[in-house]
Design brief:
With about 100 residues, the protein is of the alpha+beta class. The protein contains four helices and two strands. Strands 1-2 form a two-stranded antiparallel sheet. The longest helix has 16 residues, at about 15-30. The chain starts with a helix and ends with a strand. Residues about 80-90 and about 95-103 have low confidence and may be disordered.
Length: about 100
């Protein structure tokens, strides 16, 4: 019951706070990878998101079942042209869409 109280009264905007944790993990993970590797490491990024959300949101009664990385869309400026591959992408240049299901 205390976790329900905490989730309702201590979290101002749970969706916003969960999104913040997701993007923190993405910003920490993506810049270390080459563009091709970002697509290959979607599952590892999703695992990292799930682990971080589980650590932070379990105190509020949230049970994170799965984090999905649905789509990776590099900014137009960093998309390869004519076979050129950038070595690494800044996190601000990659958008990762994540699905959150609130139960």
């Amino acid at each position: 019951k205390e976790q329900i109280y905490d989730a309702f009264y201590k979290l101002t905007n749970s969706h916003s706070q969960i999104s913040s944790y997701v993007f923190d993990v993405v910003r920490a993970s993506v810049p270390k990878l080459r563009l091709d590797d970002v697509f290959l490491e979607k599952e590892a990024i999703a695992r990292s998101i799930k682990e971080e959300l589980t650590k932070s949101m379990s105190n509020f009664g949230f049970d994170i079942l799965q984090a999905l990385v649905n789509d990776i869309a590099p900014a137009t400026k960093v998309r390869p042209l004519g076979g050129c591959q950038p070595e690494a992408l800044p996190a601000s240049k990659v958008t990762v869409a994540c699905a959150c299901k609130f139960v």
